[in-house]
C-alpha cells in the first residue's frame, strides 16, 4: 500500500528510512539495493502533531534480527532515539483589542503557538482610573525546551515468515515515548503510546494490510517532509508548552497523514503505477454537533514512479478521503460531508532533491483531516474549507544534507465569520486565517546510525481581524537510528 523510496546509483544510504509496508517489487533486492536501502525505515509525524511509522517489513530495511526459529519465523526490532534543544523567540499570541466597553472581539484557540495564555512577557493595560487592569499587550515569548524531534523515541518489534515462495506475512507493533515533561513539570511519568500495530500479507497479487498504520490521505506530503526536511530534525514544535513529538512542516502547507485502524489493499506496480485503497475506522468531529457517524472512512492513493536513467527518479502522488458526518440526537438529514484531496511529487537528480504539493478540502483543519478544532468547523457546526501548499529542496554534500522549505495553510472564513457586531464594528471572533512557515536545516551524518541536526523556522500567523504573530524557532539535536 505504500510509497517506495528512491534507489539509484549514488543515492546516500543515510536517507531517512520510510515506514509503511511496501510493494511486491521491493521483496527481492540486489546487492546494490541492499547497500542503499538503509534509509527506508520508520518515521513518525506528530499530530498536532505527527506521523509515520517505524517498523520495517523485509530484510531490505536493515532492521535488527533478534531471533530466527527452525519453523521459519524471524523476530526483529527497529527504532530510534533522539533529543533536541528548542528555543522559541518572538511575538506572543495576539490579545483582544480593548474598546470603551471592553474587548472588541475574542480569539479562538486554533492557530499560532498555542492558547492565549502561552507564557510570555507583556505589559498591563489600565482602565480610565489608571489602576484597574483591563487587558494586556501582545508581548513577546522567549522560551526554551528540551524535547523530542519530529519523531519521538520509537521502539518497534515485528514477526515475519514466508508463507510460500512468493508470499510473506509480517506483523508489527511499535511503542513511542517523548523526551519533554508534561506542562514543564520537574517530574512526570512517561507512559508509552502503542501507536502502531498491524498484520500484512505481501505477494505477487499485491499487499493487504489490516490494523493500525499510517493512513493514505496526504501521505505523500508527510513523506516528503520526513525525507527532505525533518527526518532528523524538529521544525515547528506546535504550542510551546505542548508535550509529544514535534510537527515539522505540519500545519504549514502539509496536512499530516495519521495512524488509524483500517483495511488496505495495494495493487502490484504496473509500469510504475500503483493504486492503494482502504477503509478506516470512522472519525467524527468530537466537540462539534457533528460528532456522530455510521460508516467507515474510505481513502485512496495513486502513485507513479518513473526512473530518470541512472540519474534519479520521479515520484508523483494523488490521494483523497471522505467522511459522512451527522449531528447528535438529530435525524440523518442533519449531516455534512468532510472531504479532501492532496497531490504533489518528488524528484531526485543526483544530489539535488525537490518536492512540492498541496491539498484542499472541507472539514480538514490545520494539521490533519477531521481535526476537532475551530479551524475545522464553526459554532454552528458548519465545516470550513482549507487549503495548503508546500515546497522543499535538499542538497546532499558528502556527509551533510542542506534543506530548505516553505509552506502555507489557509482556512477560508465562512460568511458568518465576517459579520461585524454593530456595537464594536468587529466580528465576534478573530479566527486563524493563514499559517506561513520558512524552514532551513543542516544535518551531519556522523555515521549511518548517528545524525546531528541544526534547524530553524520562521512562523508567521495571521488572523481574520488583522492580528499577527511572528516567531522564530531554533532547534539542535541528535538522533540514533537502527
Would you give an account of this structure?
- This protein has 482 residues and is mainly beta.
- The chain has one domain (24-110, 146-481): Porin (Beta Barrel), CATH 2.40.160.10.
- It has helices at residues 31-36, 219-230; strands spanning 64-68, 74-91, 98-99, 102-103, 106-107, 124-126, 133-136, 140-147, 153-162, 168-177, 193-203, 206-214, 259-266, 273-280, 297-308, 312-326, 335-349, 352-362, 385-397, 400-412, 429-430, 432-447, 450-463, 468-481.
- A 16-stranded antiparallel β-barrel has the order 2-9-10-11-12-13-14-15-16-17-18-19-20-22-23-24. It has a two-stranded antiparallel sheet with strand order 3-4. It has a two-stranded parallel ribbon with strand order 5-21.
- It is globular and about 85 Å long.
- The two termini are 23 Å apart.
- Mean pLDDT is 84; it is low at 1-14 and 17-61.
Amino acid at each position: 500500500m505504500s510509497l517506495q523510496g528512491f534507489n539509484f546509483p549514488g543515492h546516500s544510504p543515510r536517507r531517512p528510512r520510510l515506514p509503511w509496508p511496501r510493494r511486491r517489487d521491493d521483496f527481492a533486492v540486489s546487492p546494490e539495493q541492499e547497500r542503499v536501502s538503509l534509509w527506508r525505515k520508520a518515521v513518525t509525524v506528530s499530530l498536532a502533531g505527527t506521523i509515520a511509522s517505524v517498523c520495517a517489513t523485509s530484510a531490505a530495511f536493515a532492521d535488527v534480527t533478534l531471533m530466527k526459529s527452525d519453523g521459519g519465523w524471524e523476530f526483529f526490532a527497529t527504532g530510534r532515539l533522539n533529543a533536541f534543544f528548542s528555543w522559541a523567540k518572538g511575538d506572543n499570541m495576539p490579545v483582544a483589542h480593548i474598546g470603551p466597553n471592553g474587548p472588541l472581539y475574542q480569539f479562538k484557540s486554533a492557530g499560532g503557538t498555542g492558547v492565549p495564555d502561552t507564557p510570555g512577557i507583556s505589559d498591563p493595560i489600565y482602565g480610565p482610573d489608571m489602576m484597574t487592569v483591563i487587558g494586556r499587550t501582545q508581548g513577546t515569548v522567549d522560551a526554551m525546551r528540551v524535547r523530542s524531534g519530529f519523531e519521538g523515541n520509537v521502539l518497534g518489534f515485528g514477526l515475519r515468515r514466508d508463507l510460500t515462495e512468493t508470499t510473506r506475512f509480517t506483523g508489527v507493533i511499535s511503542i513511542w515515548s517523548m523526551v519533554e515533561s508534561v506542562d514543564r513539570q520537574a517530574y512526570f511519568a512517561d507512559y508509552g503510546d502503542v501507536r502502531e500495530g498491524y498484520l500484512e500479507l505481501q505477494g505477487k497479487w499485491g499487499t493487504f494490510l489490516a490494523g493500525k498504520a499510517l493512513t493514505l490521505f496526504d501521505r505523500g506530503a508527510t513523506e516528503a517532509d520526513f525525507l527532505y526536511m525533518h527526518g532528523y530534525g524538529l521544525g515547528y514544535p506546535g504550542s510551546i508548552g505542548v508535550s509529544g513529538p514535534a510537527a515539522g512542516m505540519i500545519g504549514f502547507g502539509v496536512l499530516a497523514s495519521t495512524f488509524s485502524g483500517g483495511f488496505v489493499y495495494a495493487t502490484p506496480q504496473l509500469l510504475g503505477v500503483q493504486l492503494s485503497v482502504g477503509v478506516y475506522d470512522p472519525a467524527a468531529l468530537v466537540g462539534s454537533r457533528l460528532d456522530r457517524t455510521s460508516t467507515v472512512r474510505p481513502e485512496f492513493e495513486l502513485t507513479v514512479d518513473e526512473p530518470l536513467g541512472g540519474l534519479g527518479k520521479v515520484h508523483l502522488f494523488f490521494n483523497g478521503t471522505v467522511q459522512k458526518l451527522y449531528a447528535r440526537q438529530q435525524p440523518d438529514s442533519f449531516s455534512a460531508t468532510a472531504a479532501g484531496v492532496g497531490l504533489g511529487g518528488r524528484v531526485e537528480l543526483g544530489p539535488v532533491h525537490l518536492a512540492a504539493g498541496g491539498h484542499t478540502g472541507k472539514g480538514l483543519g490545520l494539521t490533519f483531516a477531521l481535526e476537532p478544532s475551530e479551524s475545522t468547523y464553526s459554532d454552528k457546526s458548519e465545516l470550513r474549507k482549507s487549503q495548503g501548499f508546500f515546497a522543499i529542496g535538499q542538497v546532499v554534500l558528502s556527509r551533510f544534507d542542506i534543506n530548505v522549505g516553505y509552506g502555507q495553510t489557509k482556512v477560508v472564513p465562512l460568511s458568518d465569520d465576517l459579520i461585524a457586531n454593530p456595537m464594536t464594528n468587529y466580528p465576534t471572533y478573530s479566527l486563524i486565517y493563514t499559517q506561513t512557515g520558512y524552514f532551513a536545516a543542516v544535518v551531519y551524518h556522523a555515521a549511518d546510525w548517528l545524525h546531528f541536526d541544526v534547524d530553524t523556522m520562521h512562523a508567521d500567523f495571521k488572523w481574520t481581524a488583522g492580528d499577527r504573530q511572528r516567531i522564530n524557532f531554533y532547534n539542535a539535536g541528535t538522533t540514533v537510528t537502527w
